[in-house]
């Protein structure tokens, strides 16, 4: 017995339309009469539209379907399309290279946003609001440190990191800010046990 596996078949050019559509489009190319080829192509366009109704939300979706027909036929189908057949080279070009972000974080466990927020906090006028914001950010640093490192950390280390992240604009001493206790943060970070399913 000979088994027909997908691995032994031709690759699907546009998988969203399935193998049967690809076979039907290949069959169109074998029809000798041009009028019959055009008629068959119009029928398949209707089927392709029904298989992908979301394309109707795309502007000029009929054009999109005819382009897909040309792609699946590998641009070999000789029919009277209502639109210009796209050039194969248009679909063979490589996408634009996406450059990686070169901004390396000094402290990955704190993230990038904290540094930006500290910069904004440093620009604020002196007062209760600024003091409160810096206190929140300092405690956030300690929580982030313990979340990712899962070990004890001295408050002096957090204040040192705070100064580095703010590029020296925020320098606090041990008595300038009230940091949450390590044991309280670790307790909050512990995952709650998942409820076990009752056996039937």
Tell me the β content: under 5%
Q: Any idea how many domains? A: 2
Largest beta-sheet details: none
Structural class call reads mainly alpha
Helicity range: 40-55%
Summarize this entry quickly.
By secondary structure, the protein is an all-alpha fold. Helices cover 47% and strands 0% of the residues.
Describe this protein's structure.
By secondary structure, this protein is mostly helical. The protein has 2 domains: 80 residues, no CATH class; 78 residues, no CATH class. The protein is 47% helix and 0% strand. Helix 4 runs antiparallel to helix 5 and helix 5 packs across helix 7. The protein is elongated. The mean pLDDT is 82.
Question: Helices and strands in order, then pairings?
Answer:
Blueprint (H helix, E strand, L loop, with lengths): L17 H11 L5 H18 L9 H12 L39 H12 L4 H22 L5 H11 L16 H8 L11
Helix pairs in contact: 1-2, 2-3, 4-5, 5-6, 5-7
Question: Which features would summarize this protein structure in a list?
Answer:
200 residues; mainly alpha; 2 domains; 47% helix; 0% strand; elongated
